[in-house]
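Worked problem 6 (solution included).
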Amino acid sequence: MTTTNPSATSVLDEDTQRFLDTSIEGLQAGARRWAGMGLTARAALLGRVHRSVAAEAENWVAGAVRAKNLDPDSPLVGEEWLSGPYATLSSLLALQHSVTAIADGRSPLDTATLGAAPGDRVTVPALPTNAYEYLLLHGFSADVWIKPGVTPEQVRTTAGLGALTPTETGGVGLVLGAGNITSIAPLDVLYELIAHNRVVLLKLNPTMNELLPAYTAAFKPLIDLGVLTITTGAGDVGSYLAHHPGIEHVHITGSAATHDVVVWGPGPEGATRREGGTPLLQKPITSELGGVSPIIVVPGTWSAADLRFQAEHVATQRLHNGGYNCIAGQVVVLSKDWPQREAFVAELRRALTKAPERVPWYPGSDDRVAGASSTYEDAERLGRTGGRLLVDAHDRESAAALERTEYFSPVLGIVDVPGTGQAFLDAAIDHANEALVGTLGANIIAAPATLKQLGDGFDEALARLEYGTIAVNAWTAVGFLTANAPWGAFPGHTLEDVQSGIGVVHNAFLLRETERTVVRGPFRPFPRSVLGGEFSLSPRPPWFVSARTAQRTGRLLTRFMAGPSWAKLPGIFASAFRG
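Solution. The predicted structure is:
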């Protein structure tokens, strides 16, 4: 079932309440139907959804372009292809693979070679898992680190989550959808269905209302089966649904402040409940809430091309999607003892200035930029309109606001810690763990020669970096796009101190006891990567804001994911290298 906005008032009228009540009753019947559907049938259903998403991909991206006020001819439209239908199609294929394996009496990991990480941790390779991924993301990898003490046999035999007990229904869940990336809400829906056996009422964030027709068509097989209802509405609709007795679980993607309103209630009464440990929400809730993501730049001897490329890399981590990402890099951690510090900052300033301009589209962006500018009066305003802020805070004391406020806008800060080599890395990791709010994603940039010098000390340091996804010479968004990898905060947060959230999503291998994902990529693009001793054939990634052919490459990658074929690869490579 789908609806248009059912309410524009602060208190829901009786007709709206009755409509939502009826929707939940329909989903309760759908939950019984879902529990009676075997795994083979579920795998076939995922295949039908994959086809319907592929058929609707053009309309999906067109809706995103309208929602975000993008120029339809801009290379930045490539972001919408990759972070929308491409990510969703990839997840559908991966989930279908896992469900089919379990239906056949196998583990989703039956062909995986498990590894090890420091601290008695098992690792699961999540990227690449096939020859297509090996070529399309050549030089990139992702490994899931399981919590310490879990054995390889336990990892294999417990992979499956709810798909191991498909007749045990999880009831009706509410997904309060994200307002920034168009695949987030669909991926959350799929995870609820497969990992938790929960049918879903999805309430879209108002910024995503333009996507309602595309979502309705793309997920028609789920809607027709009665296991998904999509509705729109403001916070009053979300509040009514979250506290509805027919909803058994809530999942939210958004800010910690919004999460706390749902859990504890608004205003002084909510603060009192929080202090007393008596939440208003009397049902389980999981969440993905963002935070302040660090970009740790380990000092080394870099060429001018290295400085320029990595500056574009950092700029992308801040400016992708206009700066409105939960894992947008916000604080660059540099060594005050790095001889090339100022040269790197100069290149970063240039990259931020030259990146394609776009209209601020997410509500409140200008106010958040203005707030940062007021706090840091010496901040540099960059870009043609001056809408991008670079704050070179230097000392850690003056960086407090940058490190404790998720600006969710094009604001980038720089903070210094002392040292070089292992001493710098250890100090930077301590600083990220202790000073920055949130644990969703952390990025580390280090030249191959530096990584070689650090040796085993580097992975030991990674084990101390408490983030749900860590990217080494890549952006944590690669982890988001890796369907088999879990996505969420580092485990351990509570309702009282939720930070980046509780629980994980995506996780198409359906793994238990996950701790983090570690993504690795090439320090240099091809051909400089090979000349510098890295075995990587990847050009400048298509998600870079400086990639000139990003729109064409994103469309071609989505078409590939709609129907993987060797014949489609040459066109993708040609487009990517031209970018």
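Discussion: The first helix runs from residue 14 to 35.
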